[in-house]
Amino acid sequence: MRYNLFRKLISRRFRKDxxxxxxxxxxxxxxxxxxxxxxxxxxxxxxxxxxxxxxxxQYHEGRVMxxxxxxxxxxxxxxxxPVFVPNPQIREIPTEYAQLAMTGxxxxxxxxTNAKRKRKVDTTLxxxxxxxxxxxSALYSKPTERPSIHxxxxxxxxxxxxxGNLDHEELWVMNLDTRNRVMSLIELYKGSVNSSQIRVSExxxxxxxxxxxxxxxxxxxxxxxxxPSPDDVATTRAIxxxxxxxxxxxxxxxxxxxxxxxxLKERGAGF
Length: 271
What we know:
By secondary structure, this protein is of the alpha+beta class.
């Protein structure tokens, strides 16, 4: 009785003259879809099907069909049995993904898969950090084998491995010797890179310690857009001015992403 009253109250919201979209529900006992009503607005039909499946345990799955083509336009299904879960969750998806998502969906397995992927990412990042340390050690111990930087692309090719595919921003400094050979790679900042957060003294600290005459600054854009922002230009201008006072030349500021790089020096932005 409670269900019939509730359904009647909801049904009054819809116009009765439309027969375009059929609201159907799979009965938990019989396992068959039952046509409940026809509604002439797709979004109202989707809302109605979602509401019924959410609140009435008699129907654990619902769908909206086009009455003329018999094409399923929307489907939703309870992820858990409402008998055991106080607040059942609804999964609502477009039809083109419905079979893939609904057939054999296992939330526990999905959580395990996500955890496994996260461990793999953490392991990869740890290997990159180890490689970074080994590279700096080799650069210090074998100066004659240091790679030379003749153009922005030479620096970008090295930094791309460390910055190109990160999901967050980082700022790095490449210290160079008198022959523009790489002395060290310094990871300084994680997170948003802008002029208000960066301490210019940190940019030049290792260069002063190593007596490096030149540096290249680089940071990444996780979005893939390598266009410099106003903050990027302001940061570059502040770093270049500080370098002149310290007699350390700032050769370039690179923006790295998975789609390539941008040289602010070539653009004349901040230099």
